[in-house]
Amino acid sequence: MSTAIVEPGVWAELIGQERVVATLRRAVEGERHAMTHAWLFTGPPGSGRSNAARAFAAALQCATGGCGSCQACVTALSGAHPDVTVVRTERLSIGVDEVRELVRRAAMAPTLGRFQVLIVEDADRVTERGADALLKAVEEPAARTVWLLCAPTADDVIVTIRSRCRRIELRTPSEAAIAELLQRRDGVEPDLAAFAARAAQGHVGRARALARNEAARQTRTDILRLPGQLGSLGRCLAAAAQVVKDTADEAARITTELDAREQAELAEALGMGTKGARPRNAQAAMTALADEQKLRAKRLQRDALDRVLTELTSYYRDVLVLQTGSGSAMINAEFAEPIRDLAGGSTSAQTLRRLDAILACRTALETNVAPLLAMEALMIGLARP
């Protein structure tokens, strides 16, 4: 396994991003024309967009440019620094009210740090009205205010905003670099680290989950067994229902305790339950919280369904690799036998149609088609010759 370059300090987890680190360091060090007030971090899922933004924010606050151990670095990386604000929505979008609050904070002078830094991890989820509110703040920033926006691609951010940002493009880290990070940072055994890096297809967060969580590995195995279980219409419908149920259950496991805690905290803040207390608009506030929690659960299920589609895509990609004789390494080597059987019993044209069905399912989910209908159409599409 090749040795990845390990950057010191706050940059240590930005594996395979040497050019990005060099650019950001020049800005922190104050080189002429290297610093600007608005940045757009783009890159494929798992490449480390938000990690790069957080590292940059920490380095901007650090007296020595990102040592990684001082109070400024530690609090900035953890989200506790008073002059580093991080926005990551748990809903499907970031609305205008949330953006306006962020803009209000951007106008404030830093209290402890050198800059007022605002990180929007899901800039692609900002609504049209929210983008209008954000544009003016990016066009006319307050002194010592720095905006760090993150999105999968520049095209996911409206042109008027992205044209005012300096772009930082991250690339997919190599399997070797991810495996080395898992061993160095998380103490993962080499064989498991290599498996997780391969299965995650360049997604650092996914690799870490697979390496540290046996349940995540089992879920992946269950997904990759699906292609061999779609022999009839009844099985297709049953498989779709099971996938939707499993992803809903996963979202519920994450949100149930969090929902209850948020409801209790809000009720306490409103004085509900206090003898004789009748807080105004209390019920409306509780209803608004419940609506937000439903949206969060919906997004979490959407994310889980997306992982299902990603795993299935890798499976049929391996089938196509064998059918075309490209010689590329298999992602799902532990499923080599059923993949070879499917490759030998079907054509590359049929495999491409199945990959198109996965893409159509993803598009359907993005346009708010009911998950069960989308997954039923997918499973039927995968079963057809």
Question: Any key phrases for this structure?
Answer:
385 residues; alpha/beta; Rossmann fold; 3 domains; five-stranded parallel beta sheet; 15 helices; 5 strands; 58% helix; globular
How do the strands and helices of this protein lay out in sequence?
Blueprint lengths: L17 H11 L9 E5 L6 H13 L9 H8 L5 E4 L8 H11 L9 E5 L7 H12 L5 E7 L7 H4 L3 E4 L5 H12 L3 H11 L3 H9 L1 H11 L8 H38 L11 H43 L11 H9 L3 H19 L4 H13 L2
Parallel strand pairs: 1-4, 1-5, 2-3, 3-4
Would you give an account of this structure?
The chain is an alpha/beta fold. The chain folds into 3 domains: 9-169, 3-Layer(aba) Sandwich (Rossmann fold), CATH 3.40.50; 175-228; 232-253 and 296-383, no CATH class. The chain has 15 helices and 5 strands. It has helices at residues 18-28, 49-61, 71-78, 96-106, 128-139, 159-162, 175-186, 190-200, 204-212, 214-224, 233-270, 282-324, 336-344, 348-366, 371-383; strands spanning 38-42, 84-87, 116-120, 145-151, 166-169. A 5-stranded parallel beta sheet has the order 2-3-4-1-5, with helices on both faces. β3 (116-120), α5 and β4 (145-151) form a beta-alpha-beta unit. α1 packs parallel to α2 (49-61), α4 runs parallel beside α5 and α9 (204-212) packs across α10 (214-224).
